[in-house]
Amino acid sequence: MHHARLAWSPELLRYDFGPGHPMAPVRLDLTMRLIRAFGLPDLPGLDVVGAEEASGAMLRTVHDAAYIEAVRRASTALEPDPARGLGTDDDPIFPGMHDAAARQVGGSVALAEAIWRGEVAHGVNVAGGMHHAQRGAASGFCVYNDAAIAIQRFLDLGAERVAYVDLDAHHGDGVEAIFWDDPRVLTVSVHQDGRTLFPGTGFPGDVGGPGAAEGTAVNVPLPPGTDGPRWLRAVDAVVPAVVREHRPDVIVSQHGCDAHGNDPLSHLNVDVDAQRTAQQWVHALAHELSQGRWLALGGGGYAVVDVVPLAWASLTAEAAHAPLAGGMPLPADWRAIALEISEIEPAQTLGSAVPVAWRPWADGWDPEDPVDRAVQATRRAVFPFLGLDPSY
Fold first, then answer.
1. Is 132 designated active site?
2. pTM of the predicted structure, to 2 decimals
């Protein structure tokens, strides 16, 4: 059996909000070129399949019918609907918008189905992770919420519990809102503090709907400037404990790589090495807890040469059980193409060969450190609902 399946179609490059918009298709184009330059599609552990458009019925498992119709109208008649987030600066309308967004969903859902059937252990959709889309509105470059629809598909196929781990610099607000009252779905988001970044949500006290769902939303808002070692410390201090307690049948993760210091849209400073380390941790949790069932999605990431391709080629290789070595040279032919396409001089290597030195929470926390204070606020707010001790 292939360890992993990557969903990809060149048609996914049609998700294009136009010139000057940060969510530029070149980020996916350069990612797929790097995945090929590293020879990942030739690995025995990786199977590459297309991505078809999700049906209206599939979209309606999460989105309001009236909203889907509004997206269709925006796509064909080019009618904006600002009340539904369509035709805003973040989400300009474009011809074929519905088809392109439905294809993102179709890629994620087909992977979810293959994982649940046992055809593959891991699925990767670098074009997915559209975590801001709401039931009835586009938001933050996201039209349809493929992450939420894939989670709903796992539930509809019989999963009793799903854990969603969101490592994007921005709060995974759409997925959280959609499953706010559903105790079957744990949503964990590690992000830049909403007081300083879009979408302005995701605080420690936001723990899920009252009653059975309390404790199934977990938010770790980090101060601007948080670096890789401190980010890993925050991830480690919260994510494994709450995911283990949830005992998920499957893990869905969102690997937006916009927490990087070069990213133009956020103010964190998490290098590719730290992001790659977190990918390894999520992968290991899937094998520990979910019989390996793991759906890994892309997301944000707007440093289109030095960060996005490196992070998501690494994610794909990790899922294929053929991880790329830190510090390895980037292929010369890819660097030449990346320079030609972007006019940005690419990095020479895939991060550093030296493992990130981070300090585990168990070593004790520092009340003077703003990252530690943020982590402790989350642990105090949510751990008691899960029967976990926030203090140790």
1. yes
2. 0.98
